[in-house]
Amino acid sequence: MPAKKITRAVKICRAFKAAQISKGYTQADIAKRLGVNRSTVSRWYHSPDEMSVGSFRLLCTVLAIEPADILAID
Q: What CDD domains does its record include (predicted)?
């Protein structure tokens, strides 16, 4: 059985989740800081390609991630 290919979106999701965990935040914490619903943060994690540029930058700021590091994920 061939290995399952991990997509770029999944890698981005994992990077966001890892940063969240390292900061000790919940999705609810992030949502509160950004003024959005927790479900919105969850959707961004699972479909990062659907996130607006502004939301992407804000999420990176809250998680203390350089946007360029996320964009460099291939």
A: HTH_XRE
1, 17, 24, 33, 63 from 9: Cα distances, Å: 23, 12, 23, 23, 17
Question: Measured in whole angstroms, how far is the alpha carbon of residue 65 from the centre of its chain?
Answer: 10
What is the CATH classification number for the domain harbouring 32? 1.10.260.40
Q: What is the total count of domains within the chain?
A: 1
User: pLDDT digit string (tens) for 25-71?
Assistant: 999 999 999 999 999 999 998 888 889 999 999 999 999 999 999 98
The pLDDT of residue 6 is above 80: no
